[in-house]
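Re-running the complex after MR caught last week's input typo. The corrected sequence lines follow. Everything else is unchanged.
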Amino acid sequence: MKKNQLLEKIIHGVFLILGLITVGCVLLITVYLVISGLPAIQKIGLTDFLFGTKWASTASDPKYGILPFILTSIYGTAGAIVIGVPIGFLTAVYLSKIASPRVKSAMQTVVSILAGIPSVVYGLVGMLVLVPGIQVIFGVADGASLLAAIIVLAIMILPSIIKMSITALDAVPKEYEDASLALGATPIETYFKVSVPAAKSGIAASVVLGVGRAIGEAMAVMMVAGNVPNMPNSLFQSVRFLTTAVSSEMAYSSGLQQQALFSIALVLFFFIMLINATLNFFLKREKE
Amino acid sequence: MNNIVTVKDMNLWYGDHQALHDIKIEIPEKSITAFIGPSGCGKSTFLKSLNRMNDLIPDVKITGDICYEGKDIYQKDVDVNSLRKEIGMVFQKPNPFPMSIYDNVAYGPRTHGITNKAQLDEIVEQALRDAALWDEVKDRLKKNALSMSGGQQQRLCIARALAVQPKILLMDEPTSALDPISTSRIEELVMQLKEKYTIVMVTHNMQQAVRVSDYTAFFLLGELVEFGKTDDIFSVPKDKRTEDYITGRFG
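Corrected-run output:
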């Protein structure tokens, strides 16, 4: 009996330590980012850093304004949401409520595959198909643009939106739908007036998850957006995102430039934390 | 008295399993008809055939005639949504929508195209009064319906069904999930409602059938064994199986 209790305690402890590894990583990254991200902000000045419109880190008189990156990330994400959410949401309604079980399972498999495709492949296809396509269709000099990034991101966030919305819609009690049908509502009326409102927290969470995915994406947007630190004044401008600002210069950076890259990462980290908090808020409400 | 529903030679299959055999019944208007019988006897299945809620279950096959006001409801040209507007339903478990009390009752009328606020207000009030709920909820119509007690929720579901002004109200064991006090309130309510509506009620509870219904149908193993005035069924049953069931020899 005593031996068993000791064993229980040891196993309990091992699990606790394993769990703490994850927590430790998060703490370590947070602390490291804050420590290495703050010095540059202090030197450049918070306002000049966040709201400066010019990024010229290698010029003889270097400028470290990251507003172009912040706006590009916000516009790019917003654009992806505007395109991706209606498609993803309506797909989820179709798969959860209308599609036959066979169609549903086949299409869900495809959605899972879409989620599993590495982002470099999205970037590659975007580079070879989308960028020249935009060039031809809109008659612009270079198709590598904010628009190309928005389209790629819109496709990349589809799986998160579809999967999570389906989970939320599948969880709507059948009794609600029966009640609506028994009142003479058509199936489509029932889905949009009863099922979707009942699943709205989960659907909102799926959108936030999509936002998180889009804002954190680096590789694919680096390949299709042109990666030039312009202000995003037009859809056809070559632009650079927060993520790609860090990854494209880190290899050869030094001194204040490198510190500034850490500061960009800190800003990105802050955005992601904000999105996570929003996500948790919706998921909590869904549970209630 | 007129018969609002007449059923002849009706059979129903779930896949290969025949759940109802040669059902024949005539349900009188503005009265309460109770369906009794042991679990799995087909009484709920039959009830759900009357507003075609069985359509939602895959592999259901129905033959024979089910006529509502003289028209076969399983004919191709029948609009199922209009049919369900005329033949409302209250379910076993209270199932209000996760919306406000007002929106629950207004859901049906809104679905059928009523948008005028004053008109909706009137319909909602009338439906809640008919369901004997108005005095309890008139000051909190904007509150979420799920915050109500189980008995109130079930009366709200009745109000929601009444708000589309059906002719018939089908009730599938409406009190089986409720406490005795809520049950007796619903029973009183049902007895008042028969002034305006035809009520068809499935019940597990024989005493309930005796207390509230005018007519009783006894189902056993997918057959309608006996149908008649409730007083007759419970005092002088014609069929031996009915007698055995109501005297508690099986159940």
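None of the earlier attempt is carried over here. Chain A has two domains: 2-48, 65-287. Chain A touches chain B through 17 residues (CB under 8 Å).
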